[in-house]
Amino acid sequence: MSDQTDPAEKALFEAPRASKPSRPRSRRPAPTRSVARVVVDTPLPHLDHPFDYRVPESLDQDAVPGCRVRVRFNGQLLDGFLLERADTSDFPGRLAYLHQVVSPEPVLTPEIAALARIVADHYAGTLSDVLRLAIPPRHARVEKETPHTPPPPPPLPEPDPDPGPWADYPTGPAFLTALRDQRAPRAVWTALPGPQWRDAIAAAAHTAAVAGRGVLIVVPTGRDVASLDAALTARLGPGHHVALTAELGPAERYRRWLSVLRGHVRVVVGTRAAMFAPVRDLGLVVLWDDGDDVHSDPHAPYPHARTVLSLRAHYSRSAVLIGSHTRTAESALLVESGWAHPIVADRALVRRRAPLVRAAGDDAELARDEAARTARLPSLALRVARQAARHGPVLFQVPRRGYLNALACARCRTPARCAACRGPLALRSAHAIPYCRWCGHIAGDWRCPSCEFPRLRATVVGARRTAEELGRAFPALPVRTSGRDEVLTEVPATPALVVATPGAEPTVPGGYAAAVLLDGWALLGRADLRAAEEALRRWCNAAALVRPAAEGGQVVVLADAALPAVQALIRWSPAAFAERELAERRELGFPPAVTMASVTGDPERVREFLAQLDLPEAAELLGPVPVGTDGTERALLRIRRAAARELSAALKAASAARSARREEKSVHVRVDPLDVL
């Protein structure tokens, strides 16, 4: 089941009164197409196929393909979706009857059902797991109050013949022309710095909508949804699109989802879950900032929005626009393979739009300030911040939230650990007592186990501590913070200091006067295959909020100027960096040049799973090796991209075999994991 609610209790809340099941002794099969093929809501891999049930005559009208049903399965009442109706069944025994039609609303369209099957097979998952992500929970009251045929919205305004923001890109107008002609262009778009990307997406959506096609836009955060919602309203007018986010609440979200399902609107903007929105006559899918890890769903089978939208566009023959201020190695591969074409601006225009970027650790600055390489706030950052603060707000990007997230002995630099669980010690404020981030134990009497020294020093500084330090360094300026606890959407264009974690940077009318990107080592030094790519993405997203260099906009990055990611930021050449990153990963045999899968769990179970796995000949096994501190092990499987389906099928077969034997402890199988190091 999709939750922990007892099935009988769930039926009381979700079952409509008009669809009560008949008593078994009075049931007769429907006169035509009396066989219903049902996908049952069970996560067990060996049960990942439709089951045939008999449709009783009493449910003949309500049992339509795509509706929600309840069936008897292994002595339990389980939810499911009716995929199709047929006249005959291949099952040789006696078919059980459908127990109930929960709702006659066909919430599972044929397109989404086919897409869910493809996604499940790609990620070695089950169809029911994907459908749980694709179809929101039912709200009977919302279904009844939402009209099936609302009044038609006002006509769409004709798009401006001027390509608008797309005129800044040599191939931009051609992309709009292809959308206008109902063709299916596929593009990877490297957006210019500044806020124009929102209007560019709205213009593309407007062009596709006027051509009579549906549009689906997926962005990382609710703030991005809100800004695009405003841009779409300005372009399309009210009533032509909906925004889908988790902040809406279950009822309102289901209401808007139903308006998409029933064809009331055909333009959708939303976060990750919207990638399965049932948009009719889909003609354009847009994914913004595909490198953000929030696009990867944390629930099995862990689909990524980039993969899902690419598969959906391929099978629905719709246009694709993958945009960002940077470019991922995966997007670079799409361009290199010819599957998509690049949309980039001329270098001269990029230089005019981008701010001036300087590295605090370059040779000139080291000659002027010997501490520039090690100081957290070197003199260059302080000088730029003071000068820029006279003309507007200054952004300080801090990689970590919190106060002091890691401590060490002030004398010998030994990391401070909890005496109870060996977890890292941290501080919540200047006057707080050190506590353990794992178990919460208060370490008021801590002493270094190496030298017995009782004092601590910070090794990792968070956003709140940074705000305190800046408040002392700039006492005349207000300091605002934006992070997980409180995310600011916008700040006024008045002198101030804004301390924000990556992704929580508020916008400023006209742009920031300057930005300081702190603790570059914390991003670049992570044990992650995508560390450099992710650092550049976060830096570019922050720098894109700064005024152009011609208007005095400056960016200071605290990192070694010789590093490729830092050079890509200074030159504002993310596409070239992505191409280099892809070439290096291909040489080393890392994704996306190859397909990888991970098998994680208890060491004994992982080895059992690998022993039962019938690997393709082209596959390579790496490991297993310990990961974490709980004894868990992980094995990596690597295969060339052309044989990725064979690896997924082998993983699915092994999972199904273990499931059929009712193995109590399972292993976690993940295709295309984000972390492979």
Radius of gyration (CA) equals 28 Å
What is the approximate shape? globular
Strand order of the largest sheet: 8-9-7-10-11-6-12
State the distance separating the first and last CA atoms: 33 Å
The number of distinct helices, counting runs of at least 4 residues, comes to: 20
Number of strands: 26
Strand content range: 15-25%
Mean pLDDT: 87
Folded structure, characterized:
By secondary structure, the protein is an alpha/beta fold. It is built from 20 helices and 26 strands. The strands form 6 sheets. It has a 7-stranded parallel β-sheet with strand order 8-9-7-10-11-6-12, with helices on both faces. The model is unreliable at 1-25 (pLDDT under 50).
Question: What can be said about this structure in brief?
Answer:
This protein has 677 residues and is of the alpha/beta class.
Question: What attributes does this structure have?
Answer:
20 helices; single chain; alpha/beta; globular; seven-stranded parallel β-sheet; six-stranded parallel β-sheet; 677 residues; disordered N terminus
List the helices and strands and how they pair.
Layout: H1 7-14, E1 35-40, E2 51-54, E3 68-73, E4 76-86, E5 100-103, H2 110-122, H3 127-134, H4 140-145, H5 172-180, E6 186-190, H6 196-210, E7 214-218, H7 222-236, E8 242-244, H8 250-261, E9 267-270, E10 282-288, H9 305-316, E11 319-324, H10 329-336, E12 341-343, H11 347-353, E13 356-359, H12 363-368, H13 379-389, E14 394-397, E15 404-409, E16 425-426, E17 435-436, E18 456-461, H14 463-473, E19 479-482, E20 497-500, E21 514-517, H15 520-524, H16 531-543, E22 554-557, H17 564-571, H18 574-588, E23 594-601, H19 603-612, E24 620-626, E25 633-640, H20 644-660, E26 668-671
Helix pairs in contact: 2-3, 2-9, 5-6, 6-7, 10-18, 16-17
